[in-house]
Amino acid sequence: MRTPTVIVDVSTVVRDRVDPGWHRMDALIDLWRREMDEKAIFYGVLDDASWYHLDDAGQAAFAAWQAAGRATRVRWADPLVCENAERYPHAKVLTSDLYRDLRRDFVWLQNSDRFYTFSFTPTGVSIERAEMGAIRDEDVSQYGEAASLKPKCLNTPEGRQMLRREWACTNPSCPSSQARAIADLPYNRNGKALCPDCRKELGDAGDAADTRELKVLIGGNDVAHIPLVAGSRIAIGRGGGEDRFDLRPLVGDQQTLVSRDHVAFRNLRGRILVSDLGSKNGSALVREDGQSDPIPADVEQRLELHEFVSIAGGLVQFRLSGKRYARGAYVPDRGTGVISSPTVLASPQSPA
Ligand SMILES: [Zn+2]
Questions:
Q1: How far is the CA of 182 from the centre of ligand 1 (A)?
Q2: Whether residue 265 has pLDDT greater than 60
Q3: Is residue 15 located within the same domain as residue 106?
Q4: Cα–chain-centroid distance for residue 179?
């Protein structure tokens, strides 16, 4: 196949409440060849649901594309559209979708100028560049999370109920049984929560509504996530151990800028409170408008979504994840030889 110059999310073209069908695809291709590129090579991605909505002629037209190696049919088209667009970086993308739930996996979607959208009117069709814009980090998490619920059947009323609990794996041969609560989402099978690792039934390990997740950023990169169940507190600095998060492996030779006890985060019924532990190089709470206030020693401040904590002059930042369903209990690195201290989680009936 020759390198495609236009990736088409065919599902978004052929679907329409009033006038669906393959003729929309034909009209769009005509217009593209006339106005954008006479020699354009199209590659189409279509989802199963849209394929079943095409009439015989439409299905035959799509089959001809497939036979020529110019199209693929999948259950969920969006990720494949983005994968193809990534694979062919000079291709444009023709779609009416903004792929908000894929911005975490395909970071280049933010502000991309490769996307074109279309509008059909009774008199014809027009094409224009799509304004992809950038979605805030916290919102990217939420959209991505919504998409991750569906394959696990968690987007149902009973699945959502499941998300309100913490779950523990009690299968001794499963790696997930090491943690007080699994960090990943469970599977919902007929109302039973199954382990994402071993698929055995999970045990209820307490209320998850107030669990929050702290993101650790270095140089703008998301390097670690720390789940904090309600009632737990974690000290951050140099050194591992119970209820401690060790920054040394992440900051390398700049570790001397971090105090042994630098800052602490506490989850008080779902609110995250931060305090400085008398650190040498200090910490600051940076508000949404950019205003930065030093965090005084041993006085707890509330950290809100869209704000962040910066320590040691910006060396490391901490943000709350925008995830609506943060979950799991923090387990310190096994290298420290200490397993997570008791938290408010009900104890799973783990044999060990
Ligand atoms: Zn398991």
A1: 8
A2: yes
A3: yes
A4: 22
